[in-house]
Amino acid sequence: MTGRLVALTVDALDPERLARFWGGLLGWEVTDDPRGGIALLPADDTGFSIRFAPTTERKCVPDQMHPDLTSSSPEDQRRTVARALELGGRHIDIGQRPEEGHVVLADPEGNEFCVIEPGNQFLADCGFLGALASDGSQEVGWFWSRALGWPLVWDQDQETAIRSPHGGPKITWGGYPAKEKAPKNRLHFDLAPDGDQQAEVDRLLALGATRVDIGQGDVPWVVLADPDGNEFCVLERA
């Protein structure tokens, strides 16, 4: 038994505005989320939704995880960048070198993302949302491979990547985090068990997860952290 990745949740000061931005950029349908906030439903083989949950906490450090969007040509890359700027995004400098081909942008609340140059072989068979690129240790990539039942598609030089057998974006970890971690990550995974919620929690704890308290109070989901301390939620059975 494995958990299913059902959503990437993004904390947002203005969930509706952020949903309009990402829905317009990805071409995904905007809908109300039953747990509150706004959700985007994928229009491709991405096997999870993107959920925008209300928060009053402003972004204070770079995100631990960011989307990588793919391009089919230089013109396609320019169109994606122009569309992002039109929707309210902006260029940012995170120390990228001029010779690097990807373009680094931020959404209206400052969440980083990249528009990858055409010809990138690592994402060649991925869709427009090519990857969720993460800071993280090799061990955390192994953890998520076992947690989701997704095979490792890269495991070299302390870098790991996994991908669903059904396709969709890759999730990558590029080495041990060097950046300061926020008290609570603005982006986190939501998992739904195929069976009993407590049995799934016990399985994830045995794989190396830990229980954490982020002030969630009395909620029907269980908050855990992966071996690098990144929070995620185990929902009730779908």
Automatic annotation (TrEMBL):
Could you tell me the superkingdom of the organism this chain comes from? Answer: Bacteria
Q: Which PANTHER family match?
A: CONSERVED PROTEIN, HYPOTHETICAL FUSION PROTEIN
Q: Which residues form the VOC domain?
A: 4-118, 125-237
Question: Which CDD domains has this protein been placed in?
Answer: VOC
Write down what this protein is called. Answer: VOC domain-containing protein
Q: Which residues form a coiled coil?
A: none
Q: Which Pfam families match?
A: Glyoxalase_6
Q: Which organism is it from?
A: Blastococcus aurantiacus
InterPro entries listed in its UniProt record: Glyas_Bleomycin-R_OHBP_Dase, Glyoxalase_6, VOC_core
